[in-house]
Amino acid sequence: MPPETLLELRRLFKDFATQRAVADVSLEIPRGAFFSLLGPSGCGKTTILRMVAGFETPTSGEVWLNGQRIDPLPPYQRNVNTVFQSYALFPHLTVQGNVAFGLRHKKGSDDIKKGSDDINRVLDVLKQVRLEAKASRKPSELSGGERQRVALARAIVLQPDVLLLDEPFSALDPLLRKQVRIELRDLQRRVGVTFLFVTHDQEEALSMSDRIAVMNAGALEQVGTPREIYARPRTRFVADFLGAMNWIDGIGVRPEAVNITQQGRKAVVTGVTYLGSFCHIAMKLIEGGEAIAAQAPPGSTLETGQTVCVTWNREDEVHV
Amino acid sequence: MKLRNLFLTPAAALMVVTLVAPLAIVCVYSVLTRGAYGGVELPWTIENFTRLWDPVYGVIFLRSFWIAAVATAFCLVLGFPLAMFIARSGSRKNLYLSLVILPFWTSFLIRTYAWMFLLRDTGIINSALQALGIIREPLPLLYNDGAVILGLVYGFLPFMVLPLYATLERLDPSLLEAAADLGARPRDTLVRVTLPLCAPGIRAGAILVFVPCLGTYLTSDLLGGSKTVLIGNVVQNQFTAARDWPFGAALSLALMAIAMLLLFAVRKRGEELL
Predict the structure, then answer these.
(1) How far is A173 from chain B (nearest CA, A)?
(2) Domains in chain B with CATH codes
(3) Which residues face B12 on adjacent strands?
(4) Closest partner residue to B182 among A86, A102, A110, by Cβ?
(5) Does A140 touch chain B (CB under 8 A)?
(6) Cβ <8 Å between B183 and A74
């Protein structure tokens, strides 16, 4: 039995004054999934997220959540929450005040009493994101990573059907990003909330997602598991966007699948770049003249100008 | 002398001549005796200050505060939606802002006289209403507290709108989206996000309106007539008809002291709120 669909986009279009941002996007997002929208900036992925959140109205098409059509509803009536790219934390409230904002609202009351369910939920969520010690700080007193966690806590405390994340790591430094990826993935598994994650970073999408939808110029290119879209891209755009790809006679081969051996097609080394864990070898096929790249061990003694042979396995070929 | 100080000197000199020096004169006059035909004479006395305790002045002080407070409240209630509208008008912002300050192109005195022409018994409003048969007798629109408050609100509204606009314009729209995303209806977003974040603008606007309203004498004189006497009118009267300069000086010092105490209190509270 396939997993139950929680969020469904039906033939969504969004036109802005000068351009079409989203063109005929239909998607089914299963309950409990970590689903990523991946694409270059301006491809319409954030616009889709904003239509699900309710900040943009589709030009045409429908958004269904839990069997209910939600696209006509205002944001405050949709059981989805957003982690904004800039976090959008309320600067006049403490960490605890930010996290309690939605709870306080839904209760229709403006004060939370100590010991009540609400404050316990707030403290519990703050513990989950390791911020219980900073509950009374203001956002301006936090680091970038801590702010990101407050934004996350503020949204998950409301137990939304779907959590929308708009490039939540783009403001973090690269070292922190990798660590936060694992944390977020673990958190998603723990709380079981469906995540719709928008990113332009293919490594981020590959490492965290159950399923990825690759977008280009407002339209869907391919939807599948990380392995499917990396190893079996259906379009040239997807193949190139997910990682480096050699194109030989219309067939794609990833550099890591290219072997430098004694027999095969002859190529001249045009550049060797040492990258720590491996060497990137740029070559040019003697017959045909196409550029081809490969990965060699870090101790490789290959030099520019050297003639080598390259081969690859049939099953590593990508046909688009 | 540093170049920076050189350029600061003219402004500093102007401040000394137009602010510090007159203030010093007022202080000195307030402890002297009135001259027979105006002016001041020796001996030194504190009698001008003991006279302030006369309940007559207390009532006028309270009235002045009340009128200034009501005018400030109206400016806030009218100015906030206007400032919000302008802040969200995109490319038309500058046009609307220049419309807000357009009245400054005409003297305040002339604009206040214009209100008299509108409001008096034979003015445009009453004539029109009578001509239309809506009223028989002219409405008492002029020479009352309402007319004074109207004149003050009209005159000082831009001073409320401009600082409010400045804070609203800087307000990050994603904060409003975040509030809606967390379940807040537009009204809740206004109360829980927009207003608290605009507190500095509200405070600045309130001070810019309240302080000049407190000391006003022109508007109350022209639109309030003899019925609406504010503390500004009493001070003016001491320096003109009553020829009691020392008492006028004491009154204005008292007004200044109270206004400064209030400002200080507002500032304190404001810092706590933020």
Answers:
(1) 22
(2) 65-229 (1.10.3720.10)
(3) none
(4) A102
(5) no
(6) no
Inter-chain contact A76–B172, Cβ cutoff 8 Å?
Answer: no
The predicted pLDDT at position A115 comes to 47
B185-211: pLDDT as tens digits: 999 999 999 999 999 899 889 989 998
User: Left if phi > 0, otherwise alpha if psi is -120 to 50, otherwise beta: which for A119?
Assistant: alpha
> For residues B170 and B160, what is the distance between their CA atoms, to the nearest angstrom?
16
What CATH number corresponds to the domain at position A267? 2.40.50.140
Same domain, A31 and A105: yes
Specify the 3-state DSSP secondary structure of B144. coil
Q: How confident is the model at residue B270 (pLDDT cuts 50, 70, 90)?
A: low
3-state secondary structure of A295: strand
Q: Is the pLDDT of residue B59 over 50?
A: yes
Question: Which residue of A79, A94, A101 is the best one to mutate when testing the B interface, meaning the one whose CB has the most B CBs within 10 A?
Answer: A101
Pairing of strands A251-253, A80-83: unpaired
Q: Are residues A182 and A298 in the same domain?
A: no
Q: Which of A90, A121, A148 to mutate to test the interface with B (most CBs of B within 10 A)?
A: A90
- Whole-angstrom distance, CA of residue A153 vs CA of residue A96: 10
Q: What is the pLDDT of residues A247-272, one digit of tens each?
A: 998 899 999 999 999 888 999 999 99
Q: Which residues, 6 or more positions from A166, have their beta carbon under 8 angstroms from its beta carbon?
A: A46, A49, A82, A83, A84, A85, A198
Q: Write the DSSP string, B156-225.
A: HHHHHHHHHHHHHHHS-HHHHHHHHHTT--HHHHIIIIIHHHTHHHHHHHHHHHHHHHHT--HHHHHHHT
Q: Locate the chain A residue with the closest alpha carbon to B183.
A: A76
